[in-house]
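tmp note - TetR family transcriptional regulator C-terminal domain-containing protein
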Amino acid sequence: MSDDADGVSEVPPAAREEAVQAVMRALARHGYAGLTTKKVAAESEKSEAFFFYHYDTKEALVIAFLEFATDRIARRLAELADADPVTRLYAACDRLLGDPEDEVDTGIAVAVMELLAHARHNERFRERLTAYERAVLTDLADVLREGVEAGVFRDVDPEATAAYLLTTTDGTAGAEKALGMRDVGEGVRERLFDYLDRVVLAEGVSPPAEYASS
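out:
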């Protein structure tokens, strides 16, 4: 069993993967208030004893899931680091919105929406979710600043624009995946890229082909 404060750092990768996938499904099915180790085990082929061995508490299991969820999108954004500012910004927004057909994207969105309701009163949840949101804000602001300096973006405020993009993608992902409002998600996705075309791109600069309006 891990002796880390959160009960997660020393867990073997295979066991951690088993846990986070089971927690994701259990959160989506039961919510955090109804979550128990027994219900997590029911979403896995492993026994309840397996989860007790690796994680001391229900909270430790959820912390492991949050680390997985936030690391996943952080890695997907990091993959864009070498792209030009225009491609990077559009692709980052696309990845933040997520794929409504991707079961993992959907599962994460549903589970995180559930945990957000508890983050106000749970310091460890709040710290991890806030750190993730701040990291994404910094990443978006950096690419916007780079694009402004390169002359491919208008002279927009990087921080304010990054905040707008983050809150738009966060809210859309929640509505589309957690609530199943596909029509809302499709509409916002279209308008968000239209916003980038009209407000962010400098005159004469075209969006990446895959995001261009038909």
